[in-house]
Structures are given as C-alpha cells and as structure tokens.
Amino acid sequence: EAEDKFMKITCNRQKLNEAVLNIQRAVSTKSSVPALEGILLKAGQNEISMCGYDLELGMTTKIESEVTESGSIILNAKLLGDIVRRLPGETVDLFTDEKNITAIKSGPSDFSIVGIPAEEYPELPSITGETSIKIANSILKSMIRQTIFAVSESDAKPVHTGTLFELSKNKIKLISVDGYRLAIREEPVKCSEEISFVVPGKTLTEVMKLLSDDEAETEIQIGRRHILFQIGKYCVVSRLLEGEFLDYKAAIPNSSSTELIVSTRNFIDSVERVSLIITDRLKSPVRCLFENGEIKLSCTTSIGRASDQISAEISGDNVEMGFNNRYLLDALRNSEGDEVKIQLNGALSPMKILPREGNSFLFLVLPVRLKSEA
C-alpha cells in the first residue's frame, strides 16, 4: 500500500498555520476555476513550498518539513486553513494518494479531503528585464502606511486604485491620489535607473501585513508588467496597473499665503471633538478659522453644533476654510512627528501638510466650499 502514496510530509503545526493564513490572502475566494480557490503545496527536499494566486496577486513561501515522499497537490485554501488552525497536535502529517485524496493527521484528529492535481494550477508570471532595489522593511512599511489611505476606491480611473512609485538615482517616492486628497512620501534609496510604475492598493495592503518593523531588507524587482517583493520567506508577485497617473506635481500649490506650525495631536483631538456631531447620514464640513495664533473649529449638523479651539503658530493671512473631517483626520493621523507645518493659500486652495522639518511626506487635502452662515 505504501508504494502508491506520492506525497508524504510531517511539519510543525504552528508554522504551517501561519503560512496558510498568509498565503490564503492571495487566494480567490470565489472563482469559476476550483484550483484558484486552493493553495498549491509542493514537497521538495526538507521543505514544502506553498502558493496562492488570484491571477492578479500571487504569494509564495516555504516552510521546513520532513519530506518522506516528494509530490504536489492543490487543497482548498479555506478548508485547509480551518483544519490546520484547529488541529490539536504540535505536528501535522500530510499524505496524498494517487487519487488526490489527502489525509491530514495531527494527534488523534484525522481528516481526509479531496485535492486537485497540481497540473491544474496556473503559472505565476515571471519577472523579466528587471530593475531591482532593496529597502529596509520598517521604511517600506511606513511609506506604504502613510500613502495607502489616499488610494482611490472608485474604479473611474483604475490607475488611481494603486500607488505610483517613482524611483530615481537616490530616492524613492510613493504617491497616492483619489480626487479629494493626495499623499506623497519619499526616502533615500540606491537605484541604478529612473523608473516609475503603479502598484495596486490591494497588493500594497498585503505587502504591508508581511513587513516586520525591523532593519531587514525587502528586495523589490520590477518587470515590464509585474512586480515582485521578496520579504523574508515570502515572495509577493503582482501585476502593475496601466494608465496615465495624475500629474501630481501640477496639483501641488507652489505658494502659500498662510503658514502655521501646530501640535499634530492637539489638531487631531480637536477635529475629533467637533466631529462628534457628524454621522454617516449627517455629513457636514468642519469649519476652520485660522487667525491670531488660534485655530477655531466648528461644525453644525441637524443634531447640534460643536466648536473648539487650539493654539498654533500662525503667520500670514487669516483664512477660513471647510474640510471633510475624515480626509483631514486621515492626513493628520498619518503625519509623523509631534508637530506639522501647514501651508494654506486662500479658502479654495488645498491644505498642504508637511513635516516641521524636511520633506519626507506631503499631504494635500481639498477644502469643501462653505455656505456662508446667516
């Protein structure tokens, strides 16, 4: 009976569970092709490699394992995840027979599930003609976090559902824009050529979850239509988005008639307070009056009125503007540093939020036209 088993492995349950949880995020939840709802498992020498792919985003990893018989099989990702998560033992044994029936055993638990032949799995794109760069995990993670919030959610311009990466000789810039706000983040990096491309927001969300906060480096390889992130033991491959990205440089005001330095925390707290009377149904702009060393905030909806004020160092013209509270908060919460520099250029020009020193980030928030109060 032992002759016809063609995959037989034993591995640590916890490692398998962690790998399945991560890989599962790249798997299609609903697909007309059953293989795409599965994870491809391949047993090689002392390790098993796992792969999830939804035709746009693919993720692979390897975990060490005792391999008695090498082989491969596709198992339904959700079922595999649910089983492995609840197994009682420290180790898991997997056996696959010639009919693709896979036995999963751990302690007293024993499952037998129907697999799909590995040949039915689509091939992941290979990256050709690549440029590659390396960047510290913690830096890439903060760059994505500080720009992903401004990625567009509507498909009106699919290219804006991603983040623009601009690489030049000594820096990397990430730019996201959704029509109401814009976020730019830049850091020094070594790169051999100038290149720009747009990575889907969904891909970046997954990459961010895999990034640790350490100094280890992620290697990024850029091909013509695809990108690959090598993060520790995980490899993420994604298609790039095509299309004309907004000319963001033209959207940034060059001049300002009012400039202020304000405590990031105080400004956030104040906006949150006056937003308490805003609900999903009752939307209303937060009115901000910048004058005489103070920011006076107020908001009125049909359930009431709120006002608040905080101090700030203000130079230049007094100005009153209205903002969508969520957009203003997103930008402030993603600012790094105890204080931010804010530049304004009249009531209808976007608010520009920068670090107090330097230019590692730049956020723009479009104002909302205010109806004059009677």
Key phrases:
374 residues; alpha+beta; nine-stranded antiparallel sheet; eight-stranded antiparallel sheet; 7 helices
Write a structural description.
With 374 residues, this protein is an alpha+beta fold. It has helices at 13-24, 77-86, 137-148, 201-210, 248-251, 264-274, 325-333, and strands spanning 7-12, 38-43, 47-53, 57-64, 66-69, 71-76, 91-96, 101-106, 109-114, 131-136, 162-168, 171-177, 181-188, 195-200, 217-222, 226-231, 234-239, 258-263, 286-291, 294-301, 304-311, 313-316, 319-323, 339-344, 351-355, 361-365. Helix 1 runs antiparallel to helix 2, helix 3 runs antiparallel to helix 4 and helix 6 (264-274) runs antiparallel to helix 7. The model has no long low-confidence stretch (mean pLDDT 94). The strands form four sheets. The protein has a nine-stranded antiparallel β-sheet. The chain is elongated and about 80 Å long. It is built from seven helices and 26 strands. The chain starts with 6 loop residues before the first strand and ends in a 9-residue tail after the last strand.
User: Beta fraction of the residues?
Assistant: 35-45%
Spatial order of strands in the largest sheet = 14-11-12-13-26-25-24-18-22
Radius of gyration, taken over Cα atoms and rounded to an integer in Å: 26 Å
**Biggest sheet character:** 9 strands, antiparallel
Question: How much is the average pLDDT?
Answer: 94
Shape summary: elongated
Number of helices: 7
E-strand count: 26
Helix content: 10-25%
Low-confidence regions = none
Helical/strand content category = alpha+beta
Distance between the first and last residues' Cα:
88 Å
